[in-house]
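Fold this sequence, please.
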Amino acid sequence: MLLVLLGVVVAAFVPVVTAGAAGTGRTPVAGLPEEYRPWVLKAAEACHDPALTAALLAAQLFEESGFRADARSPAGAEGPAQFMPGTWATWGRDDDRSGTASPFEIGDAVMAQGRLMCSLLGQAAASGIADDPRRLALAAYNAGWAAVEANRGVPPYAETRRYVADIMGSVARFQGTGPFSEITGHGAGADAARRAATQLGVPYSYGGGSPTGPARGYCDGDGGYRDGQCLAGVTVGWDCSALVQYAYWPARRLPRTAAEQYSATADRPVAQAELRVGDLLFWRHGGNGHVYHVALYIGDEHMISAPKTGDVVKRAPVTDMPASDFAGATRP
């Protein structure tokens, strides 16, 4: 099928199916001991909040204990997830069905960690505090939610700030997506794709984000709502075009919206067979309506995308988007 857009003829995206090109969702993880892997994946999948990724849990475990199941702190925290006895009494269960619920058993500890982090992410998202909910949840895991709420953000404690920064900085180390985990190539496009990849897992926020980083968005007639509530107004994150703008800035100073980015680059169309890492992919309603989405191509029929309210920035197959809406690809 051919679509004529702004005088440019582009081909509808037809996926080339290759071995291993299935979608990876939000659970891939790498770089952790094998005995932890199934439990980290299970804990992430058990949470309704897509911000709780397996990589985030792995990075937190590494910070807490270095993956030592027998870890004990001078303050009395126990096990790989470093639960204090009182907190364990609330969140600990016999998830590995060994007959006992123990903070020193990997399965029990990781599943309890996941439950607590999932709950804290929910509190963070509902709090209205202008910060990444992941940062707020991590701060609360370390210092308690009361301290986060009292300070309307990460508390000014040196230990807590270091804890949050260390974990957020090491999430990328534990991200794994099989053959799509490495973004290869040189030049502005590959650099943009790698910069976008540093934002994997950051929440989607309609209207959120700028060349300086993620930000709270807003709600209007087109989006930002979930279950009748204005989620964008309390979520620090990215919408699709802000992520692309950030990824290329300042090497390419792209305009702000997906429609503007398409107009600014439509004179440099790219055929499907010639796609390179960093090329922009666009979708428009019915193939000839308003451009509503943009994503960065990263190779192997995959993209980095900030898709919709309630989701996060993620790697995904290009086929996650409707083929009938594909408007074409351009090279900034």
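Confidence is low (pLDDT under 50) at residues 1-25. The longest strand covers residues 291-299.
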